[in-house]
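Please, structure for the following, as tokens.
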Amino acid sequence: MKTATATAHSNIALVKYWGKRADVDRNLNLPAVGSLSMTLDGLRTVTTVAEASEDAFVLDGAQAGGKPEQKVFAFLDRLWASAHDTPRPRCAVTSVNHLPTAAGLASSASGFAALATAGASAFELDMSLPTLSQWARMGSGSAARSIYGGFVRLDAGTAEDGSDCVARPLPGVEDWPLRLVVVQTTRGSKPVGSTEGMQASRDTSPYYQAWVDTSIPDLDAAQAAIEARDLPRLGGIVEHSCFKMHACMMATVPPIMYWKPASLAVIQTVWAARQEGVHGYVTMDAGPHVKILCLADDAESIAARCRAVPGVEEVNLCAPGPGASVEVSA
């Protein structure tokens, strides 16, 4: 094998993903709903996979054990076995998140997209971007989208083998000066992991099936809004998808509430700005942070308003970002 270092960027779902299919092989990690995202330039993971005398996983400069390490090497085991009958070489995996880990900023998306890209290159596998995307999805549902840059649509599909659960890039970001204002409203990891939360929502939320049933119309409407470069139309869909997802979470037993007081205050600040003609549209993933989709000309004004909200920890401006990349050495 070779040594490969991959960079993959986080993405934020504009039409949300929440829930996994229960009728298929769990290793495929198939989503119950499709999603549509924008890859970001400023938030990324850099991962190196190299041959070693024993398996070791270093995350953000510290030896990682337990479940994170198990997930990484189980993923590499499956990736190696897809093309080899021999035991997998022992690997040293080093990963650095240039964004908070496990905090609701899609570090798993960039992390598994980078791991899939670096692992496939280190193992000298011949993989197309769609195949890499499918492998990344097996590590994290949102990682399938981080293989590509710009706008990306991932359809849930219906096939048992996941062959029609395919991510594809959408045109539109190249000539549309959009920004995502990322507002961090707390520090540290979120209290309920996404996988655990999705399972609980599927099992107990009375709103879960309605959430699933309305996903495809949202995807089609959002794609049409992107094609038309219609931000108010897209923004309305983005906010509706976000609040439907969080309503499903809140109706879970016990309730899943990621919001902090600052989260709601930021949402209200953005809505107040919109009344004044500064157009931003909010979304939140499974975490307390708020992201605001807006035009580049409005980004600094929105960011300044959000920085003034009590409880806000940090505000970053992100432009649309590139797809995953890799460097390989012998």
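DSSP finds ten helices and twelve strands in the chain. The first helix runs from residue 66 to 81.
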